[in-house]
Amino acid sequence: MTLGEIANTRKAEPTASPRRNALSWGFRIGLFLVVVVVAAALISFVWTPYDVEAIDISSKLLPPSLQHLFGTDHFGRDVFSMIMTGARNSLAVALVAVGIGAGIGVPLGLLAAARKGLVSESIMRTNDLIFAFPSLLMAVMITAAFGAGAINAIVAIGIFNIPVFARVTRGAALSLWAREYILAARVAGKSALPISLQHILPNLGGLLIVQAAIQFALGVVAEAGLSYVGLGVQPPMPSWGRMLSEAQTMIGFAPWLAIFPGLAIMLLVFGFGLIGDGLNDHLDPRIRRLR
């Protein structure tokens, strides 16, 4: 066989199987669940089967039927309509809270990795201090000062997300600072800020996306927990957590009041978890090589 034939043979060989780069079925299922909830939330802005604020005592505690798919509550409100509207509250709180955590935590993590010594220690010890106060306890403190509401829930969850993103960013950035191309950039005269923005941050994109998906799931749970104890979204706006709280005294004779909000929370959290796991498998080169 001539050298030309060998070269043509090598060109004909596939470099990688398309299946190896395909996203997993778990990711697709998670994406489907999240898309369904997001679609329901968006539709609720313009249409719901019933007015979520309309009280109809004559229709209270009706079981699921064709007229009311998920039944009605003790005020006669349609549970399906309330879950649709509650979806947008849960998603909005989680989205903004994760945005706050990433928007502040990622720059702090990059700074802590680039500036060792007093700066790094100050940032990380402050993160440890924030970690000492869970989001629920932080929400209680914020509520005591400013009152209950969705904004305070967002602030509490967002502050709790800051040290999460800061720790993840710093840990991954420290390993990148020892790479040869970073050393070459430093030898070329680049300062810490351009190196962090041009070389470190782009290489952390996959990791931060995976972490954001995980924090989305935790944000939904945190919002539901805060609303459950009355610190989240306030009436008359529906909230999945408050729906669970109101259903706990009626679960014996109206179990649908707890089943459907609980399923909504479970499916949304499960969806975000599958998305995060699928993205981690897809973006991690070590896992891709094992497939």
Outline of the structure:
The chain has 291 residues and is mainly α.
Under the CATH scheme, which class?
A: Mainly Alpha
CATH architectural arrangement = Orthogonal Bundle
Strand content: under 5%
Number of helices: 13
Could you say which overall geometry the principal axes of the C-alpha atoms support? elongated
Radius of gyration: 24 Å
Indicate the structural class: mainly alpha
What does this entry look like structurally?
With 291 residues, the protein is mostly helical. The protein has one domain: MetI-like fold, CATH 1.10.3720. Helices cover 72% and strands 0% of the residues. It is built from 13 helices and no strands. The chain has helices at 3-12, 18-21, 25-43, 79-114, 118-131, 135-146, 150-177, 180-187, 192-203, 205-228, 240-247, 256-283, 285-290. α3 (25-43) packs across α12 (256-283), α7 (150-177) packs antiparallel against α10 and α10 (205-228) runs antiparallel to α12. The radius of gyration is 24 Å and the shape is elongated. The two termini are 33 Å apart. Residues 1-20 have low confidence and may be disordered.
